[in-house]
Each structure stands twice: as C-alpha cells, then as structure tokens.
C-alpha cells in the first residue's frame, strides 16, 4: 500500500519543549466499516495490533461504526524534551480527537506498517500519542511497537497519571 503522507519539517520552540514538527500526515480512508467487536478482530489480524483490556472496554462501550470515509490530515510532533500530558496539551494547543475518529486514524496508520515498516508512526519502541475525547473527558492513548514480541500495542490512561513522557514520543492531533 502506498503511503500518501506529505511531510513538512520545521524546527520550533513551543513553551519549554523543543520539537520537530511534521505537518500534514494524511490519513488514508479505510476500505472497511467495523463495529466494535470487528474492529478488535480486524486490528489483530490485519494490523498486528494488540489492545489493552481497559481500552477494549472503552471500544465496546463507546465506539460506534469505525471507519475513515475520506482522507483526513493530522499534525504529528516529536517531543525532544520530557513533558507532562498537561504541558503537551497546553503548549502544543492539542484539541482532543473524537473517539471514533481516533480509532479510525490509528487503524489506518497501523495497517500501513503492521510489521514495523517505516512510515508515519514511530516503529522503534517510542510512543505514538493521541489525546482522545469521550463524552467531554480527555484521555491519552499510547500506541507503540513492542520490539520483543513484534506487534503494535494500544493502551490508555488519564493525562499526567504516569508522570512525564521522556523525549521521543510522537504526538498526533487534528490539523
């Protein structure tokens, strides 16, 4: 599958974080529409993606039909210094992504790199972060490549709950 991402590299200082901005990551449409149970099965079989139990519960409770009907663009930014979620959200002006939109975008990105191929996602063990909203509540979703077991892993928690992120994660937000 050809990667249609357009990247513009710019160095910038925002607040206290030095970042490398990669703008205009284009999320390709998914050729499927999935209900929550099908999403979990499809993610494992087609995208080599494992999902934590707490995130599975969110999918089953809150997701509707999951798809990406048309190409959408996201901004991705690599953190060059440690930062808490609240600093990332505030300093980078992150607008949380609606839950279904985030699920569709994550699946669309992972399907292009199921075995750790190079692409828009970090495939080196660093986190890919999405700030996601369900019913007005924002939580952080972490997607990373498990280098030992050779699969992608998706989990979530409340912002700032685990402390600061070390330098390296890639933050995705709607552009």
Keywords:
single chain; alpha/beta; 4 helices; 9 strands; 34% strand; disordered N terminus
Q: Care to give the gist of this entry?
A:
With 175 residues, this protein is of the alpha/beta class.
Question: What's the shape?
Answer: globular
| Helical percentage | 10-25%
Class by alpha and beta content:
alpha/beta
Sheet with the most strands, sense and barrel status: 9 strands, mixed
How much is the radius of gyration in Å?
Answer: 15 Å
Number of DSSP helical runs: 4
Please give the number of β-strands: 9
**How large a portion of the residues is in β-strands, by DSSP E?**
25-35%
The end-to-end span amounts to 23 Å
Average pLDDT for all residues: 86
Query: Could you give the order of the helices and strands?
Result: EEHEHEHEHEEEE
Q: Give the uncertain stretches in residue-range form.
A: 1-18
Describe the structure.
The protein contains 4 helices and 9 strands; from the N terminus they run E-E-H-E-H-E-H-E-H-E-E-E-E. The chain is an alpha/beta fold. Residues 1-18 have low confidence and may be disordered. Strands 1, 2, 3, 4, 5, 6, 7, 8 and 9 form a 9-stranded mixed β-sheet that branches.
Which helices and strands, and how do they pair?
Layout: E1 8-14, E2 17-27, H1 36-47, E3 49-51, H2 53-62, E4 72-79, H3 85-91, E5 97-98, H4 99-111, E6 128-134, E7 137-146, E8 151-157, E9 170-174
Parallel strand pairs: 3-8, 5-6, 6-9
Antiparallel strand pairs: 1-2, 2-4, 4-9, 6-7, 7-8
